[in-house]
């Protein structure tokens, strides 16, 4: 297979394909595991590397992104790497200013306020020009990984990105963004469509650069209800998967896609029929009921409460065992129900990974 920027790559070069096999529901010796935010502030080497550097400057440096992606893999036997970047690089590529403010998180000095503001966005984004730095980071990281584990690329989903672009940062209610859904439904769809177009190109660019799986983060599904989800989130999630897959099929590529709609399990049945191989779950759903509701149609990923990592190691091991028994070891990727927090003990992250590997090997022998 030829990928631009990658030269000749071959599947056989992958030394650990457990994650990709699990995405496709195939048997594995152990359940693969990775963590959302596995590159992050809970690691002293991350804090040291990032110290004094602007967050989005770091995102724009392929060498820095590569280093930060690899850091957690030097410590733990994770079964996948996720490229270090952020979902908010897309609003930036569309012409918006986004800054990372210490203690506050991502901030848009000039968020979208009214539908007229859509005219301020780039109508046609050249992803190679605006986001080529992410593609370079992916290619470099893929080379440096040398087939150790697969590399996951990612994007924010349209509704989640729209919410940030209107709220101007994090929010508990998302009332400014939801105001658009109820007051300006047409403009909302226009924005969601613009985002979808960029996202499709962005994901295809990530695959061309070497990403071996793709995760779509609908982090703000939880502030929508089932009706709004049906209208403003699901159709775009489907569109993204279908368009990316159609394009990849043409070049004979098969790249599994994961959809993670946090707090959106009211939509679980629909998500399991949205052309994604894997549905990611937060911790508010029981593994067995998630399996039932998705009818064995997809692989599942998740969903230990991140806060369980504050428990003593023996307790983590018990929680993991129960989770594995609930999901079963086939078509399953262990993860947390959301990202790691900065105050988590790296040792407990290691205990989590080890528990997944040990218990799942054991369960597979039964
Ligand atoms: O200085 C720092 O280190 C800031 C912390 C940080 C990090 C490590 C931010 C700010 N982003 C990231 C990297 C990041 N972001 C990754 C790296 C890969 C990995 O997982 O190891 C990923 C996948 C993201 C994706 C992301 N960014 C999401 C989706 C996942 C989720 O958490 O739901 C979201 C919502 C963001 C926005 C964002 N970026 C950063 C923060 C603190 C936030 C959340 C802000 C908020 O809503 O309050």
From TrEMBL:
GO biological process: protoporphyrinogen IX biosynthetic process
Pathway it works in: Porphyrin-containing compound metabolism; protoporphyrin-IX biosynthesis; coproporphyrinogen-III from 5-aminolevulinate: step 4/4
Known catalytic reactions: uroporphyrinogen I + 4 H(+) = coproporphyrinogen I + 4 CO2; uroporphyrinogen III + 4 H(+) = coproporphyrinogen III + 4 CO2
Keyword list, A-Z: Cytoplasm, Decarboxylase, Heme biosynthesis, Lyase, Porphyrin biosynthesis
Superkingdom, natural source: Eukaryota
All copies of domain Uroporphyrinogen decarboxylase (URO-D), residue ranges: 32-41, 152-168
Keyword Cytoplasm: yes
Cellular component annotations (GO), alphabetically ordered: cytosol
E.C. number: 4.1.1.37
Molecular function terms from GO: uroporphyrinogen decarboxylase activity
Entry-linked InterPro entries: UROD/MetE-like_sf (IPR038071), Uroporphyrinogen_deCO2ase_HemE (IPR006361), Uroporphyrinogen_deCOase (IPR000257)
Subcellular location per the Swiss-Prot or TrEMBL entry: Cytoplasm
Family to which this protein belongs: Belongs to the uroporphyrinogen decarboxylase family.
Function: Catalyzes the sequential decarboxylation of the four acetate side chains of uroporphyrinogen to form coproporphyrinogen and participates in the fifth step in the heme biosynthetic pathway. Isomer I or isomer III of uroporphyrinogen may serve as substrate, but only coproporphyrinogen III can ultimately be converted to heme. In vitro also decarboxylates pentacarboxylate porphyrinogen I.
Name of this protein: Uroporphyrinogen decarboxylase
Organism of derivation: Oncorhynchus kisutch (Coho salmon)
Gene name linked to the record: UROD
């Amino acid at each position: 297979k030829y990928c631009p920027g990658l030269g000749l790559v071959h599947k056989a070069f992958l030394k650990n394909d457990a994650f990709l096999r699990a995405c496709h529901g195939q048997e594995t010796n152990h359940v693969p595991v990775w963590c959302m935010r596995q590159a992050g502030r809970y690691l002293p080497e991350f804090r040291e590397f990032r110290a004094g550097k602007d967050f989005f400057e770091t995102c724009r440096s392929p060498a820095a992104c590569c280093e930060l992606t690899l850091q957690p893999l030097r410590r733990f036997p994770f079964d996948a790497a996720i490229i270090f970047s952020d979902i908010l690089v897309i609003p930036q590529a569309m012409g918006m200013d986004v800054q990372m403010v210490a203690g506050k998180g991502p901030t848009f000095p000039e968020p979208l306020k009214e539908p007229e503001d859509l005219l301020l966005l780039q109508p046609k984004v050249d992803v190679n020009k605006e986001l080529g730095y992410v593609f370079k980071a992916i290619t470099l990281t893929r080379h440096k990984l040398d087939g150790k584990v697969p590399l996951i690329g990612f994007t924010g989903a349209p509704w989640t990105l729209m919410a940030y672009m209107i709220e101007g940062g994090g929010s508990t209610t998302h009332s400014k963004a939801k105001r658009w859904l109820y007051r300006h439904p047409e403009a909302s769809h226009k924005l969601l469509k613009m985002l979808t177009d960029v996202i499709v190109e962005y994901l295809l660019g990530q695959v061309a650069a070497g990403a071996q799986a793709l995760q779509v983060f609908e982090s703000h599904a939880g502030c929508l209800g089932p009706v709004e989800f049906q209208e403003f989130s699901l159709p775009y999630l489907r569109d993204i998967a279908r368009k990316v897959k159609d394009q990849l099929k043409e070049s004979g590529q098969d790249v599994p896609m994961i959809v993670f709609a946090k707090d959106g399990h009211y939509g679980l049945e629909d998500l399991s029929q949205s052309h994604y191989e894997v549905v990611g779950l937060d911790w508010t759903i029981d593994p067995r009921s998630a399996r039932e509701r998705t009818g064995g149609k997809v692989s599942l990923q998740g969903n230990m409460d991140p806060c369980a990592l504050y428990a003593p190691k023996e307790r983590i091991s018990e929680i993991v065992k129960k989770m594995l028994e609930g999901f079963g070891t086939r078509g399953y990727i262990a993860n947390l129900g959301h990202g790691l927090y900065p105050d988590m003990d790296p040792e407990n992250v290691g205990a989590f990974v080890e528990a997944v590997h040990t218990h799942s090997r054991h369960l597979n022998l039964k």
